[in-house]
Specification:
Layout (H helix, E strand, L loop, with lengths): L1 H36 L11 E6 L2 E6 H4 L6 H4 L14 E4 L3 H13 L6 H13 L3 H31 L39
Parallel strand pairs: 1-3
Antiparallel strand pairs: 1-2
Organism: Phytophthora sojae (strain P6497) (Soybean stem and root rot agent)
Pfam family, one: BTB_2
Protein name: Potassium channel tetramerisation-type BTB domain-containing protein
């Protein structure tokens, strides 16, 4: 029990260090980007309201929200010279799923992600369409973090079972190995895009 708690604390400490390092790198990159982005983009004032019509549903928010990921299609349409022309109602139309787009808006506003694996999968695909690299990286980080915790807990359980006293041979050893009902660590996200191969099976 003590070994399990110690390993869990070590994992949490290492993960906190990784997150801290990632934040420092991101802060430096954003600082550099902000200094150079004006050379290539001219965005509307942050308090300006831009409307997107996604699948017939209107989404209104400020330029500050839409340009959180400044390399995205949404951000480009918030410039003084957008590559698409707005409709007569001054909205930009996308023939996409509005139900998933609402999750994009939630992330751009509050950095929130859904818990459902299916919604994460759909959100990842839509993030690719809109060129939202920030959102895709957030989903990948969620995958890596939860799988790392699951892997650590599995390793602890295996270690505890191996260190336990050996009793009489169990009959369950005669069962085929393919009848093991415990799910694979990666099965939780088997349908989620895996661009870096963290959970892909060989």
């Amino acid at each position: 029990m003590l070994s399990r708690e110690r390993l869990r604390r070590e994992l949490e400490r290492e993960w906190a260090l990784i997150e801290s390092a990632e934040k420092k790198v991101a802060a430096r990159w954003i600082s550099w980007f902000e200094k150079n982005v004006s050379k290539h983009f001219s965005f509307l004032p942050e308090d300006s309201v831009v409307v997107f019509n996604v699948g017939g549903q209107l989404f209104k928010s400020t330029v500050k929200v839409w340009t959180r990921d400044r390399f995205s299609i949404l951000a480009q349409l918030c410039t003084t010279a957008p590559k698409l022309r707005p409709d007569t109602d001054q909205s930009f139309f996308f023939d996409r799923d509005f139900w998933v787009f609402r999750l994009i808006v939630a992330f751009l506003r509050d950095s929130t992600l859904p818990e459902s694996v299916e919604e994460l999968r759909e959100l990842y695909c839509e993030a690719s369409f809109y060129r939202l690299g920030l959102l895709r990286h957030a989903i990948e980080a969620r995958m890596i973090g939860e799988d790392a915790v699951a892997a650590n807990e599995l390793q602890v359980r295996l270690s505890d079972s191996q260190s336990a006293p050996v009793e009489a041979p169990a009959k369950v050893q005669d069962k085929p190995s393919n009848e093991d009902s415990s799910p694979s660590i990666a099965s939780k996200y088997s349908e989620l895009p895996d661009p870096f191969g963290f959970t892909s099976k060989k």
